[in-house]
Amino acid sequence: MLPDLRTIVLVLVITTSISAITLFLFYRLLKDVEGLKYAAIGAGFQAIASYFLLLRDSMDVTLSIMVTNVSYFLALLFYYQASRQLTGLKPAWLFPVSMIICLSPLFWWFQSSHYLAERIIISATGVAILTLMTSYVLWKNARNLPGRLGMSLTFLVLGMISLWRIANMLYAPVKDISFLDFNAAYVIFLMAIVSSFVITVGFIVLTSEKLHNQLRNEVNKVTQARDIAHQSLKEQQHFLSMLSHEFKAPIGAIKANADAALMLQQVKTPIVDESLHRIKHVSERLNALVERCLNDEWMAHSIEQEEKALYDTSLSLVLENIATEYDIPLIHSLPSGANVLGDEMFLNVLFSNLVSNALKNARHRSSVYMELKENNGDYIIQVVDDGPGISAEHRPYIFDKYFRVESSDSAGGSGLGLYFAKRICDMHQAAISLSCEQHTVFSVQIAKNEVSHD
Question: Terminus of the chain with fewer CB atoms < 10 Å: N or C?
């Protein structure tokens, strides 16, 4: 036995209310998605139409009829605009709004119960036009959104039912029939319940598909930009390598000739002697710069490819050599050679970069020192200086590639030193950290090589 019509209308009210709340919350979550706001407004008007349909027997019938139909027209109007925006079109208001303005007063004009057929034709005409327009928009546009086909079919079915109602009223018009006795309303209201659910799910699916496509496009753009940047960097490195090699020969020749002139000059002239020493000094500086360029390129390639050879290495010997090279103190009291499993070349690069960085930023060169100590089976190496440190806002990025903190107190760099240090630590499963309290302290924690032989 079928439930009475009032129960069906009550279910319709509950369904449309849930749909309106769902789309509103979805819109609140994704405000930037065009079309979702109109979908939520449309669902709200559909819920209002259902409420006034339920209250038809407890209020003025003419007012109930007019508000119900106009609200449903507005619901379909906003569904139409939502469909246009979700498929990439701009809203189009002129024709549908004009149609609603023309049809709405007719419900008041044909308010008598004797004009039931006329009111049904007016209502079905507006619904048919709006639903078929929406169906066409969804079917024709945004072919990259598969969910549009289900939505298009739903609106097409609603439009065809409305056309059937028009034809039925024209063929067999009814003169006077009670609202609760109209058996055909079962089909219409059940269809309204199903369509409300399908439309809500459809708009959510369309929005999800649109977001998925947008995300995929953004990922493709980022990937393309990354590939272009990577290719540009490779070309830049290749050019720098070629340029550096081309510079090495003439710079070497200039230095060799300056050395020869200093040794072979017969008469020591202060001006000539000073000029030759200046030429020699400049050529040495240029040669060091070229070597740095070549080393940076080679080092970057080796570290990026993780071309490492881990073997038993004396950490204390590595640190002693660096301390001697940079003429800084090394503090440690470990009895053994502090052996670790590592790549000696990369460990030299790691601590050379940290010491070089400390010397560039220290206020006083005498404040820079290294300390080696043992802690719970690991070795802790600290590089300390009295420099200004790094602000808290910049610390999360200091190990990023090419990141530099611009400061008038420090010399500029390539932004690769600390990046290399972090990558080398990762290669050795070591940890690197920074502390900026009383002094600037870079700490490296690396595991002992328990199977080493002294």
Answer: N
